[in-house]
Design brief:
The complex is a heterodimer of chains A (579) and B (411). With 579 residues, chain A is α+β, with helices and mostly antiparallel strands. In chain A, 31% of the residues lie in helices and 22% in strands. Chain B is mainly α. A two-stranded antiparallel ribbon of chain B has the order 1-2. The radius of gyration of chain B is 27 Å and the shape is globular. The N and C termini of chain B lie close together (6 Å). The relative contact order of chain B is 0.16. Classes of the chains: A alpha+beta (579), B mainly alpha (411). At the A-B interface, helix 1, strand 11, strand 12, helix 8 and helix 14 of A face helix 4, helix 6, helix 11, helix 12 and helix 13 of B.
């Protein structure tokens, strides 16, 4: 092409080869880098063959703020406590956590009094903390006095009401400790086995003293030794690395506790476990597929699980889940909406639910329909026997229409409700669930549903203020016992005002039954009492069970020792890689 | 206005700008409806518990007291406490994530600018050719592809199928570089001997001072001599004291938090390669995406510049084509590219949320999303203020570079 410059025509120099060469140079550099790195990787030389950690576990969870039993009240915090701490008793892996499934941990023997208000434990002798101090009864008293004394409003003692159950802890002798309770409490072993009852080492928990406050909580602190951030060291592992970035866990390292009381049994089975934290379920799935990690535990989505089940390079483990989802009916009058304090309305709505459809379409059959607030797999709720809410049926529109017709609702005068769900991912697939429940309610022809949502902080505020008409909620237990589920029907913090409108009817009978069940150690008696209690609740439907989640883990095929049972305990100390 | 005066003026202008930003963010957070404290309890909390949290966060004080305490805290580098249990220092939480974000931003920007300029220049030089069309389409498509999708594709190819690169994180367990650590010991003769041994450092300062004075044509007597003596004694004394301080501590540790840099500091090639492996895919993802902007910008500016007379003149004078294109034309076409670099870099420092999530990269983007989900107002306030300050600083640097490259801007 010619150009004109000050009246003189000049030949414009065009060298397209230079443009091409620039691209070629960039492509060549990228290619060389890729080839070199790939070659190194393929040959397993240099950087790629140097470090071998024993086992790498990936998760999307994170400790909320601390692994101190006086503060931690989150799933993953409790997992770390479980693997680094020890309690007086433990639950047999793979069991249904019935009375016969409790085994000794730091205690070798226990005896309840006849009235179930005094529990005496004989402790294991010769157990050492990591620093060589011998464990004895004073450490048990110290741990419970401390946990109850700190009474963090975010912590388990406040939320699980330890102080309403335990009156005091008494050191009888060096190896005998007695718990004096305020109430007869049959599930006490369950409470003792839970992570909030782990025994702490005074050396790392604030020292020997009797006056406690929030300042005594052992928090995570950036840049400090992980060992000092964990007040426990009687468990199979010691937390030797705990790195958090911007308030979220980034990496943890668990190393075998040289003084673990059960080390002669060959535990833990793997000496070193590194825990890596991933941003979301997709990233976790890709990490296990890419071979970056040996084990993926929580959370992997239903669709990913379905895909991975066909992948020969990984193994998918399924177990019983203790997490449940339920629907709550607000019984206080809300402006512009019909009152739900009529049990017939609540029963009609419950009858419209089609639980199998939810499990099949939303969760691809990776959850199971739930007809009792006490999940399947737990004492008195064997698999294959549906719970009492089955009596109302699934998609039982005839029954729902007849109930509502008696109250004047029909195709032209529909019952109008607002159905709320949590929108920020706190519960799995909430929007999809809510959309399906709406269609199920509306399939009756006499109910009209408006969907509403809020993120988790707002959802909790709404719950406290009782402004949500019908809403979804979830629960996983503090301790593994029907006692820790049955109370949900009237739990005051759900803000559904059931007790306000039913204080003289079924509620009284229900509460009395609940207390009776707490006061009996006979399994058959307790089971029949819970059946009776749920019978009342089928009539009242203040809270309605919908589904029970399963527990999932994905590992490399040669990983063994995975136990996914109703306890929800992730026993890292049993995991090992088979040669 | 000289360059120095221009820089001073720009820095002075930045102060009221940041002050205004701090004030607006502070006020917006305070006037938002609802009680943020009540959001932070699992169950219905007692009034006492809420009052305690309010007190702990200083939210029970009058607004103006909170404001001045907040400003005073910022001057000390303290952004306050998070509302999450533990009430951790927001400054610490933010700065624990910042190196990861900075490292990702730097390498992404290098890739984006490298690819963008090379392809953009190439396309402009072969205007309307096949190569030009290919580059233009590439630039548009690569920018239009959602970054998480591009990241996912790269992960599926290079991590899941080929197993060449890891699927997420910053480096392999136990491969975190420690940076430069020098173990120091005090000389046996104590501080006096150490001070005397530091004499050559004073001489070095003297030499540097002489050179500087000579370049500035300062007369030796009396100002030159005064400056020289000052440099000599100050350099000697300060060095001796600082070095003694570290010798007393026994160890000198330099760590940037950037794993690639720290691996080099540590002199550990294994860790460097490991860090680079983990960094490669997220950087490439972001870099490719952003390269679309630079390709189009470079191409259009170069097309205009290559038509200008001075380019023709340079060619007419027989300069090599490379020198004409990269030495003359690109330098003139570079100002808008520089502006865009500044804007994009500032944006990246705010955290590339989607890329960080896709690659589980523990950076600021994830922190901000997490804190927003938790309604942690104090942490959000801290993060927004930091982003504002970063944008202001990057803009300042860009303006200074602008003024350096194009002297007309200073006037």
């Amino acid at each position: 092409m010619d150009v004109e410059f000050e009246g003189v025509k000049m030949r414009k120099f065009k060298d397209s080869r230079r443009g091409v060469s620039a691209i070629v140079v960039v492509a060549a550099i990228i290619l060389i880098v890729i080839v070199v790195v790939a070659a190194l990787y393929a040959l397993q030389i240099g950087p790629f063959g140097v470090v071998k950690t024993e086992l790498i576990m990936g998760t999307t969870d994170s400790v909320e703020s601390a692994v101190d039993p006086a503060q931690a009240y989150d799933f993953f915090g409790w997992e770390i406590i479980q693997n680094t701490g020890a309690a007086l008793v433990d639950i047999e892996p793979g069991s249904s956590a019935g009375p016969e499934d409790y085994t000794g941990a730091l205690a070798t023997d226990w005896t309840p009094s006849i009235d179930l208000k005094t529990w005496t434990f004989t402790l294991r002798e010769g157990v050492l903390f990591e620093d060589g101090t011998e464990f004895n009864a004073s450490h048990v008293k110290y741990s419970f006095d401390r946990n109850i004394g700190i009474a963090s409003p975010d912590g388990p003692q406040y939320n699980m009401e330890y102080d309403a159950i335990i009156d005091n802890v008494e050191v009888v002798s060096k190896y005998v400790v007695k718990f004096n309770l305020k109430i007869p409490f049959a599930p006490f072993l369950g409470l003792m086995a839970c992570q909030a009852s782990s025994i702490v080492n005074p050396e790392y928990a604030g020292g020997w003293k009797t006056d406690w406050n929030m300042d005594d909580i052992v928090w995570y602190e950036n840049g400090t030794d992980a060992r000092t951030r964990n007040p426990m060291d009687l468990g199979p592992y010691i937390l030797t690395k705990w790195e958090r970035v911007a308030g979220k866990d980034n990496e943890m390292r668990l190393e075998a506790n040289p003084n673990y009381w059960n080390k002669d049994a060959g535990l833990p089975k793997t000496d070193v476990v590194v825990i890596k934290f991933y941003a979301d379920a997709t990233a976790l799935r890709l990490a296990i597929e890419a071979g970056d990690i040996d084990v993926a535990f929580r959370h992997i989505t239903a669709t990913d699980i379905a895909d991975l089940q066909d992948d020969p390079d990984v193994k998918v483990w399924q177990g019983v889940g203790a997490a449940i989802q339920y629907m709550i009916f607000q019984e206080d009058d809300l402006p512009g909406l019909p009152s739900l304090n009529n049990a017939a309305v609540r029963r009609a709505l419950t009858a419209c639910l089609d639980r199998p459809e939810v499990c099949e379409t939303v969760f691809l059959n990776q959850s199971s329909p739930l007809y009792s607030m006490i999940p399947t797999g737990m004492m008195g709720r064997p698999a294959g026997v549906p719970g009492p809410f089955k009596a109302l049926g699934d998609a039982n529109y005839t029954y729902a229409r007849s109930l509502l017709a008696d109250l004047g609702y029909n195709e032209t005068n529909k019952l109008e409700i607002e159905l709320w769900y949590e929108s920020s991912g706190h519960y799995p697939s909430s929007p999809e669930q809510a959309a399906l429940y709406k269609s199920q309610f509306e399939a009756s022809g006499v109910i009209s549903v408006t969907l509403k949502s809020a993120d988790w902080p707002s959802y909790r505020i709404n719950r406290n203020e009782g402004v949500m008409h019908v809403f979804l909620y979830g629960w996983y237990p503090d301790y593994i016992d029907p006692d820790n589920y049955a109370f949900l029907y009237w739990a005051p913090w759900l803000g559904h005002h059931y007790t306000k409108y039913n204080a003289t009817n079924n509620y009284n009978a229900t509460k009395a039954t609940y207390d009776d069940a707490r006061g009996s150690t006979v399994e058959s008696t307790r089971i029949s009492l819970y059946d009776e209690l749920e019978g009342y609740m089928v009539d009242d439907c203040p809270v309605v069970p919908i589904w029970q989640g399963a527990a999932w883990a994905v590992t490399k095929p040669n990983i063994k020792g995975v136990y996914l049972d109703i306890t929800q305990t992730w026993r890292i100390w049993l995991l090992y890689e088979e040669e | 206005m000289g360059l120095r005066s221009y820089i001073v003026a720009r820095i002075l202008l930045m102060i009221p700008m940041i002050f205004l930003l701090l004030s607006i963010v502070f006020l917006i957070i305070r006037v938002m409806p609802g009680d943020p404290v009540s959001l932070h309890f699992e169950r219905r909390a007692s009034e006492e518990a809420m009052a305690e949290l309010r007190h702990e966060l200083g939210m029970d004080k009058p607004l103006y007291v909170q404001y001045f305490e907040y400003l005073a805290g910022l001057l000390r580098g303290d952004m306050g406490k998070s509302m999450a249990p533990g009430r951790h220092s927001i400054s610490q939480e933010i700065f624990s994530a910042f190196p990861a974000t900075l490292e990702l931003a730097l390498f992404s920007m290098v890739i984006a600018v490298g690819i963008g300029i090379l392809l953009g220049v190439g396309a402009s030089r072969s205007y309307n050719s096949i190569q030009d069309y290919v580059v233009r389409v590439f630039g548009t498509v690569i920018y239009a592809i959602p970054v998480f999708f591009l990241g996912m594709i790269l992960l599926l190819i290079f991590s899941v199928n080929l197993h060449w690169f890891p699927a997420g994180g910053r480096t392999k367990p136990l491969m975190e570089p420690g940076g430069l650590t020098v173990y120091l010991s005090k000389p046996a003769g104590g501080f006096l001997l150490h001070f005397l041994q530091s004499f050559p450092v004073g001489l070095a300062f003297l030499v540097v001072c002489f050179i500087a004075l000579k370049r500035k044509h300062v007369k030796f007597w009396p100002r030159g001599l005064m400056f020289s003596l000052l440099a000599f004694f100050a350099g000697w004394g300060v060095y001796a004291m600082v070095a003694w301080h570290f010798m007393s501590a026994g160890v000198l540790h330099i760590s940037t938090g950037l794993y690639t840099i720290d691996s080099v500091f540590e002199g550990n090639i294994v860790k460097l390669v490991e860090a680079a492996r983990y960094l490669f895919l997220p950087s490439l993802t972001l870099g490719l995406m952003l390269s679309g902007v630079f390709i189009r910008l470079t191409r259009s500016n170069m097309l205009e510049t290559l038509r200008l007379d001075f380019v023709t003149a340079a060619r007419a004078r027989g300069l090599k084509e490379g020198a004409v294109v990269y030495g003359y034309a690109l330098r003139n076409a570079f100002l808008p590219i520089l502006t865009m670099m500044g804007l994009q870099f500032a944006m990246l420092l705010g955290g590339a949320i989607l890329t960080e999530t896709t690659f589980s990269w523990p950076g600021l983007g994830r922190y901000l999303v997490d804190r927003i989900n938790f309604r942690d107002y104090t942490a959000i306030q801290g993060a927004v203020v930091l982003f504002g300050i970063l944008v202001a600083i990057v803009n300042l640097v860009v303006d200074i570079l602008y003024a350096y490259l194009d002297p007309r801007i200073r006037f």
